[in-house]
Amino acid sequence: MRLNKLFFLFPGEAAQFDPTFKGPIKNRGCTDIICCILFMAVILGYIVVGILAWLYGDPRHVLYPRNSTGWFCGIGPNKNRPNVLYFDILKCATSINIMATALNGLHFMGFLNIFQRFFSLSLDCVYFRRPAAFHSCCLKGKTVTNAAALCFCLSSGTFVNGFNAREIGVRIFEDFASSWPWILIGLLIAMVVSLLFLLLLRFTAPVMVWVLIIGVLGAGAYGIWHCYWEYDNYKNSSSSITNVGFTTNFSVYLQVQETWLAFLIIISVAEAIILLTLIFLRTRILIAIALIQESSKAISHMMSALLYPLITFVLLLVCVAYWGATALYLATSGGPIYRVVALNATNDECKSINGSVSCDPQVSCPSASCIFIRYNNEGLLQRNIFNLQIYNAVAFLWCVNFVIALGQCTLAGAFASYYWAFTKPDDIPMFPVCGGFIRSLRYHVGSLAFGALILTLVQIVRILLEYIDHKTRSAQNPVARFIMCCMKCCFWCLEKFIKFLNRNAYIMIAIYGKNFCVSAKNAFMLLMRNVIRVVVLDKVTDLLLFFGKLLVVGGVGVLSFFFFSGRILLPGSTFRSETLNYYWMPIITVVFGSYLIAHGFFSVYNMCVDTLFLCFLEDLERNDGSLQKPYFMSKNLMKILNKSNKAPKKGKGKD
């Protein structure tokens, strides 16, 4: 009766028995060809944009400062002079009496020579340029901009505020140079702990799950006791919630009896809900535990799946590097424009540029100053820089989402081939991960691109909302702020739902080879017909993986802290923490790297759980345990569901 109600609420035909079905379908065709063509066209356009940016861009405008003669500091003739000194004549006129000398017959370059000679006497009127990406100057702690200021390349110098980023960078580099073997050892420990955690889940999952559940119940019981104890202590207190009223000092409310009574009621209700949930959903919790154990077993049979996140990481790194390089080259595609701003032309060559729109700063004219004004923005490419940057960002998001989709479909195909192997491990195909990868690229680029495009469009809307909110925050009234917050929340939820739907659609694509829309519909209907099992499995898996990440990152982080801070000394080791300038840098590196390693391993495991769960639901709908329709699930799952195969399996049978 309950099953009929679920079918009425979530229509969709249950999977029908197919005697020829034995895992991911081999004979399949290309899906979503139109979207595949569109994606390839966008990729080709992305390559063209990158080529144009590389041809017309010059990242030296951002990476190196440029002096008034048009040369870059730190390269070429200024190789040993990486810093730029900005010099404003008007500011110096009040501190040094050089201006009069310059105006009394000395030409402009002679004036500059005098300035450089007396540089040490004129510190009040000079200021250093910050790193080139900031395009600003620093004068006695204040940021100023002066496009017409004269600037020179200097061999050394510090900011006026005394901060020297290069020196700090050198010290950090020295720390990495002396500690990199130990950083690698820390990351290796994180990898080994993550691997052992996943492999041992087939034995420890039941214990860990119930220990964590009992821990939650114990924490709730302690909260109930503590709230009652506090409530009893303030029983004779004269303070009440009506006397306190409204205040921003929260500690005042903790001295009121009614506050602890409210806490007591809330925690007691939550504790009762958890207990009732455990009583009524105990079978589904056991199913979730069994699937987690089966996932650990599947990974042990195809260890190469744990290496696939490296491929995803490399592809994402390529996407990020290409996007960053293209954005940088596009931003510097306009050439610099120089104009004459100081004139006293006497010879013919200087008269020819007198009053001209532009000039060449590397042409020697003693009585003329050729100063940088701006970058050229009048060419066809420069006029469309904004549009090209938008194209760069959209194509980048689409490529990143496609790479993630490719990884999910590849792993889903591998783990599905494990589940639908009737006799394990004999019937598991050779190189299942490679097979899933080849099928995804050969047949389903269009479907993966389709799902990635939907997610990209939602992410673009979220980015636009964040941009609008940032630009209009100061002008928003409470109503507008509330509406903006609701819109951001709705699209955040929509993005989460699209990711969930895409993930399960890719699993169905990997198994049956259908297009994206059909696969998404079938996956959604299948999950909705088993919605309680979905929620229970999702929460139990999240709880276990959160505990695993906490164990890996926290354990390795604490170990690295004690080692790099000198609290642990290894006998025979030449490494000493006193040699480090900033011992926290290796610690941060190890912690961050451990998190990435744990996330990579656990993402594979999470994909395995989701794939086996969908296969398990399909197995329940397709088969009934008869001789013609035997179950493919493990004996442990059949035992939990009180099901069995009527006929013994050939070979060794399921373990």
UniProtKB/TrEMBL annotation:
InterPro entries named in the record: Choline_transptr-like
GO molecular function: antiporter activity; thiamine pyrophosphate transmembrane transporter activity
Listed transmembrane segments: 33-56, 180-200, 207-225, 260-281, 302-325, 395-422, 443-465, 506-524, 544-570, 582-605
GO CC terms, sorted: apical plasma membrane
Membrane topology: Multi-pass membrane protein
Entry similarity comment: Belongs to the CTL (choline transporter-like) family.
Pfam families: Choline_transpo
Record-given protein name: Choline transporter-like protein
Role, per record: Choline transporter.
Cell location: Apical cell membrane; Cell membrane; Membrane
Main location per the UniProt record: membrane
Keywords assigned: Antiport, Cell membrane, Glycoprotein, Membrane, Transmembrane, Transmembrane helix, Transport
GO biological process: choline transport
Catalytic activity: thiamine diphosphate(out) = thiamine diphosphate(in); choline(out) + n H(+)(in) = choline(in) + n H(+)(out)
Entry annotated with the keyword Membrane: yes
Keyword Glycoprotein: yes
